[in-house]
């Protein structure tokens, strides 16, 4: 992931040391509204040293079920046109100490780590007490670092030392930051949340530090290269730390395939306090869900290239969300209660507005003087900054719904309850333009199959906290090895078939599971991985691009049922030009789900597709004759076929490696994978929240002959090596898969929509940073010259909110005609359009 230098180191440091309700040095965040405490907040969600009973507040954050979910194993969609419900196997809720993940035998194998390396570690095995009295800082940090793992500042990145660091119920007192390591999942008990409590003498900037600043002023890892990590199921309590301490619960500069879930932030409620819940200053995310914030100067204080955040609840924060900067940001299911300002977008960077755009949907703002505040004026620029789209936003007792520069009222609020059906600000194309808008717009007409009530359906990743240990089957106990050598095809297929028949949940212990044939996932399967275990295709079965075969196949054409799949990676080893990494055929009346399931092609240990095998070659003209055939590594990353329907996808990254993750210098490489995500479901009803697809040859996303799809912040990157070679090689256009016919010299499409209807995209970033591995074509002011076109709409109806492009001359092409040029939509480093409809 490319990290353009649009924020200087001095700017970032200024954010770090100065960000609060007051003005800062180079990012100006001004606020004259203080917290309104007309009513007290609800009781805090935890009160004892033995953990937290989540039942008191599970209705707020949906710890496992989300909207339309219950207990992590059931879901409901209700709308005027359809009612869908189901429930899976239930069991009486065990005591909170009986969480299956704590008690299952841990036999994860990291084949490229040192002998005896532990994947799973319990902090109490390292001396943490969790009694609310003992200082557990050192013990927790030892549990994280044990085993020669990838530390910030000493290791660029690696996939070889994954870890789950588990916290049983309890209150863990810390006097200095918990230091996160690369490829780490910090996980608490979801049924009885552990509390991480900053001590009264705590004096650091953050409680959990997701990327430690070094003495040089740089982050320990480049924020856009921090992948494959999670934090979930915690209470972070800062209430005894001094109110005047500038402290945040989590510091989270991050890239893709990362997530925060099911976390409560408890902060000071003293007037003028400086506490923050979540702080993000840079990166290329990312996904966050199911967070609750009490008090503080800001619940969120965030900036990143793009993010999807949903199901966030704020009580009594001076500012619920301080948007430091972004290119695009999608908020869904936000509830802001009794705060001073809901969302503040007025931050500036060196006198230029840093906030590109925000999309807010399916949300509520209550008892808050200012709902949303922006700062764009003709004098402040860039001209297309501060794009705003609101859709289905409910307000109650909000004085000013939208406030502009100089605290002018742009949209009045309401003393009672009312709904903003849709409101927009920025440039619009319908389909031609640009036409500046600032006011009410026509809301998208949402198909009944996509909604639960008035809101788009959503469901949080199931954690199966109510399932007894007897409901789980270890894939290693079933005979798979996962050592990166053994052929595990037969063992995995037998285990999945047996578990689906018995109604069991398959637990993939960490490992690298080599497969030489298709892994079949039958209807009824529930699969969960330990720290992203890898299914790794290998051999001749997947090597023929003229006869592509699925590596993981979910259902067969014409089959129906439900599948739940979370926390895994599907990859390929060596030349695999016929590998379709994931093929989804299943039709689901009750939605199936994929959460934190990723594809990774090349660039990691065991792939045989690293810098030694697949170096970049910008000084050589690459042709069909000299192209490195051993680096043709996948036919397609994911195919949702015509028979599939009812699929919910959340935090999915389909990545063809642009660099070697194991190389200390993160050296760029060239890997060829033909296609990214192809969706051709004829029935539709598909949701994509927080997905990204990068570095494929022909396209990243392609939707063909489909309809009824809702997306929240999709993101792409064009292959760095293109147009050397261009998109004509090495994969010839295949009409069976509706491939685009590319012109000579063209780079692949970021997004292509063909013969489709009712596609709703709530935030999209299409980036082309390089031309033949040279970045100057995307540098600000250089004419966006990396590629000519990136987004094609062909005989389709689509609604797009907050479109951002980089390095692309023409932002939108409709039926072969370029309708939007970048120079009409300048927004700093990116080019932005608030609304596009065809």
UniProtKB/TrEMBL annotation:
Going by the UniProt record, its keywords in alphabetical order are: Signal
Q: Where is the Rhamnogalacturonase A/B/Epimerase-like pectate lyase domain?
A: 120-344, 472-540
What ranges does the record list as Low complexity composition bias? 73-91
Q: Quote the biased-composition stretches of kind Gly residues, using this chain's numbering.
A: 63-72
Signal is among the record's keywords = yes
One Pfam annotation, family name?
Pect-lyase_RHGA_epim
**Signal peptide (UniProt feature, chain positions):** 1-22
Sample GO molecular function, one term: polygalacturonase activity
Region Disordered: start-end pairs: 61-91
Q: InterPro entries under this entry?
A: Pectin_lyas_fold, Pectin_lyase_fold/virulence, QRT3-like, RHGA/B-epi-like_pectate_lyase
> Which portions of this protein are annotated as coiled-coil regions?
none
Q: Does the keyword Signal apply?
A: yes
Give the protein's recorded name. Putative Exo-beta-1,3-glucanae
């Amino acid at each position: 992931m490319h990290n353009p230098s649009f924020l200087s180191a001095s700017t970032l440091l200024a954010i770090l040391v100065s960000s609060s309700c007051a003005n800062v040095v180079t990012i100006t965040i001004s606020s004259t509204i203080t917290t309104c405490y007309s009513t007290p907040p609800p009781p805090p969600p935890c009160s004892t040293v033995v953990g937290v009973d989540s039942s008191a507040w599970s209705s707020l954050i949906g710890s496992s079920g989300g909207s339309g979910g219950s207990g992590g194993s059931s879901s409901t969609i209700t709308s005027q046109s359809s009612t869908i419900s189901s429930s899976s196997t239930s069991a009486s809720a065990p005591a909170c100490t009986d969480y299956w993940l704590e008690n299952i035998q841990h036999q994860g194998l990291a084949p490229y780590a040192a002998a005896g390396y532990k994947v799973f570690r319990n902090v109490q095995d390292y001396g943490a007490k969790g009694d609310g009295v003992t200082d557990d800082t050192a013990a927790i940090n030892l549990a994280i670092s044990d085993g020669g793992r990838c530390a910030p500042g000493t290791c660029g990145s690696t996939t070889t030392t994954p870890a789950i660091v588990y916290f049983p119920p309890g209150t863990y007192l810390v006097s200095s930051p918990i230091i996160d390591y690369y490829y780490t999942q910090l996980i608490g008990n979801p049924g009885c949340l552990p509390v991480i409590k900053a001590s009264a003498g705590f004096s650091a900037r953050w409680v959990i530090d997701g990327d430690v600043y070094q003495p040089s002023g740089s982050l320990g890892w480049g924020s856009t290269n921090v992948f494959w990590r999670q934090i979930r199921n915690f209470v972070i309590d800062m209430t005894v730390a001094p109110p005047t301490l500038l402290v945040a619960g989590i510091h989270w500069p991050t890239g893709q395939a990362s997530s925060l879930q099911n976390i409560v932030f408890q902060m000071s409620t003293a007037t003028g306090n400086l506490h923050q819940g979540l702080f993000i200053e840079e990166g290329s995310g990312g996904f966050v869900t199911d967070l609750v914030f009490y008090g503080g100067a800001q619940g969120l204080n965030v900036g990143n290239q793009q993010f999807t955040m949903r199901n966030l609840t704020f009580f009594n924060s001076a500012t619920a969300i301080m948007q430091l900067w972004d290119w695009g940001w999608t908020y869904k299911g936000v509830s802001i209660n009794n705060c001073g300002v809901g969302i503040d977008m007025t931050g500036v960077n060196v006198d230029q507005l840093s906030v590109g755009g925000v999309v807010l949907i399916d949300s509520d703002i209550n008892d808050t003087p200012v709902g949303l505040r922006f700062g764009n004026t003709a004098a402040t620029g860039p001209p297309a900054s501060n794009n705003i789209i609101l859709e289905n936003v409910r307000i109650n007792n909000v004085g000013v719904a939208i406030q502009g520069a100089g605290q002018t009222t742009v949209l009045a609020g309401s003393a009672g309850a009312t709904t903003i059906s849709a409101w927009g600000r920025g440039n619009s194309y319908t389909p031609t333009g640009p036409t500046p808008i600032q006011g009410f717009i026509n809301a998208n007409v949402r198909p009944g199959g996509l909604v639960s009530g008035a809101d788009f359906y959503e469901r949080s990743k199931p954690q199966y906290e109510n399932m007894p240990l007897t409901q789980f089957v270890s894939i290693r106990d079933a005979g798979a090895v996962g050592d990166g050598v053994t052929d595990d095809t037969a063992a995995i297929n037998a285990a999945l078939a047996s578990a689906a028949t018995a109604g069991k949940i398959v637990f993939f212990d960490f490992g690298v599971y080599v497969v030489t044939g298709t892994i079949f996932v039958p209807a009824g399967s529930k699969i969960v991985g330990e720290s992203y275990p890898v299914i790794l295709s290998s051999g001749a079965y997947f090597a023929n691009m003229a006869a592509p075969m699925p590596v993981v196949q979910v259902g067969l054409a014409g089959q129906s049922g439900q599948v739940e799949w979370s926390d895994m990676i599907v990859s390929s080893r060596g030349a695999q030009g016929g590998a379709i990494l994931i093929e989804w055929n299943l039709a689901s009346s009750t939605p199936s789900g994929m959460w934190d399931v990723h594809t990774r092609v090349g660039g990691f240990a065991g792939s045989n597709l690293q810098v030694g095998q697949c170096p970049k070659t910008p000084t050589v003209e690459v042709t069909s004759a000299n192209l490195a055939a051993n680096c043709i590594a996948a036919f397609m990353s994911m195919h949702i076929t015509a028979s599939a329907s009812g699929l919910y996808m959340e935090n999915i990254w389909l990545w063809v490696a642009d660099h070697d993750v194991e190389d200390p210098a993160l050296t760029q490489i060239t890997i060829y994978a033909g296609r990214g995500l192809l969706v051709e479901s004829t029935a539709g009803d598909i949701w994509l929240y927080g997905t990204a697809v990068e570095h494929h040859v022909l396209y990243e996303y392609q939707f063909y002959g489909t309809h009824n799809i809702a997306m929240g912040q999709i993101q792409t990157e064009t292959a760095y090596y293109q147009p050397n070679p261009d998109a004509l090689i090495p994969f010839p256009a295949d009409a069976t898969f509706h491939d685009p016919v590319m012109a000579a010299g063209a780079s692949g499409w970021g997004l292509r929509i063909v013969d489709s209807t009712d596609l709703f995209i709530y935030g999209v970033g299409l980036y082309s940073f390089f031309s033949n591995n040279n970045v100057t074509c995307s540098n600000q002011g250089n004419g966006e010259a990396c590629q000519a076109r990136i987004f094609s709409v062909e005989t389709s109806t689509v609604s797009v909110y907050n479109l951002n492009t980089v390095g692309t001359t023409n932002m939108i092409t409709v039926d072969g005609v370029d309708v939007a040029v970048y120079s009409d939509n300048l927004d700093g480093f990116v080019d932005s359009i608030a609304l596009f409809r065809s």
